[in-house]
Amino acid sequence: MANLILILGDQLSPNLSALDGADRNEDLVVMAEVHDEASYTNHHKKKLVLLFSAMRHFADHLREDGWQVHYQRYHPDNPHQSLEAVVADQVRQLNADRVITTECGEWRLHEQISQWHDRLGVPVEIRPDTRFIASKEEFADWAKGRKQLRMEFFYREMRKKTGLLMTPEGEPEGGQWNFDADNRKKWTGKPPAPAPFQVEPDATTREVIKLVDEHFSDHFGTTDDFHFAVTAEDAQAALEHFIDFALPCFGDYQDAISDTEDWLFHSILSPYINCGLLDPLAVCEAAAQAWYAGRAPINAVEGFIRQILGWREFVRGIYWLNMPAYAQENRLGNTRALPWFYWTGDTKMRCMHKAIDATRRNAYAHHIQRLMVTGNFALLAGIRPEEICDWYLAVYADAYDWVELPNVLGMVMHADGGYLGSKPYAASGKYIQRQSDHCSNCHYKVNKATEDDACPFNALYWHFIDRHRHEFAGNPRMGMMYRNWDKQKPERREALLRRAEHLLANLEQL
Ligand code: FAD
Ligand code: DLZ
């Protein structure tokens, strides 16, 4: 009995369910860098380098651990350009009895793999991905019968399930489930943000950088200054670096944005957690330990754990519960094309320029840049959900459909009609001014709204509120916005709408 075990590029975990009970002498592990996966979106060059290099290191690690591994390196002339073609070829060569794999993270590929049984003529066993804390079924059970799904309630269930930050009596540590109210400080340069954890590229990574520069030169971003970890050991060192240097301030400055600092106090661990180099539960446990040891305050540790145990698990549950229909949602009826400056960063709006430029250089922007800058602008401007989703899927090293789609389509674009979030995260320039120091360096004036040099976010915000009255006026969390809008003088409202119409007609020139 020889099984073929397929391990995907985001499944680089030694405890992967596909490896359970396998026979190192009989079974063959298959991993492949293929054109179809590398090209289904305009993946950032650094994401390609990260995945290909991490895959190569993981294959070496498996071999050292006694596994037989067939590994296909990328080449544009490879005869097999899809995972199916590679697997079909290896099934033939091995005369395999069965293909075993762990469920993949996106609907597109899931649909393909589900057909392999018929197409390859061998049984295909798809095992649950046990690296997530809640199974798909557990999430579906929790969601059943609820009119609205709210992360906070799901998160509490996950706290109880794992015991993370729970007292022996079953109460939340610190007497509260959530310390978010403490987590909204503006960062003014002090305390200094720690240098990000960086790894010097080894020979394997350097080889992959060459490959990506040669064959993916038209992809977004740059391979310059590639310093991501590509092994589990280095990803673990990145986690330790975060806990030692950034976690203590993570909560305080979680919502801050800086004109000069790309990373602030964020962990920069999502690329590693999402491709399997770090285990999400172990990351949460390490953070909890830091609190018990008095090395970080509760608002930081709870806030950090909530992102992984709460948001990360929640969006994954939403994805699998609602796909494939979820990807088609456009409840606000958006029709505008994505402005080209999302790809170039070439805009006079300082916050947008800075967020896009960091994205281009680093394949990373932190949550508030994604949500309240590039996301907020797309929401206010009424960009077509599928276009903005594809942008987010392409440009970040941590982007996979299961996590990107609910965050963008649901959280940012409110295109699911409020299924994921109770109100849209729409904000004027004032929010960006409060949370950052961008506005004092900007061509546009944040304190103006209708003039030619007024911050575009201001008029666009009121246009959004006005044009979606039908959808939001009845939402109790939006009532104050409508009262504020209605009490402005008619001439002022007209001037704001005129300015917004002008901006919407000239998005490319902003
Ligand atoms: P930290 O701020 O240090 O947070 C810690 C961890 O919490 C992250 O590593 C991540 O694993 C998890 N996390 C935090 N917020 C979320 C969230 N909303 N959803 C899921 N996990 C979360 N995250 C991705 O992993 N991939 C994506 O493609 C992605 N796309 C996003 C698109 C938009 C529009 C928005 C608003 C958010 C998106 N996020 C995505 C969530 C979040 O922005 C990133 O996880 C985070 O910025 C990664 O940086 P970090 O590791 O420094 O995170
Ligand atoms: C994202 C990605 C890329 C760029 N390349 C590969 C690849 O060559 N081989 C592979 O097995 N996986 C790759 N991936 C990840 C997959 O496209 C897909 O996003 C995940 O496996 C879904 O779980």
TrEMBL record:
Signal sequence, renumbered to the chain: none
InterPro entries given in the database record: Crypto/Photolyase_FAD-like_sf, PhrB-like, Rossmann-like_a/b/a_fold, UV-DNA_repair_photolyase
The keyword Lyase is assigned to this record: yes
GO molecular function, one term: lyase activity
Pfam families assigned: DPRP
Top-level taxon: Bacteria
Keywords associated with the record: Lyase
SUPFAM superfamilies given in the database record: Cryptochrome/photolyase FAD-binding domain (SSF48173)
Protein name: Putative deoxyribodipyrimidine photolyase
Organism whose genome encodes this protein: Marinobacter subterrani
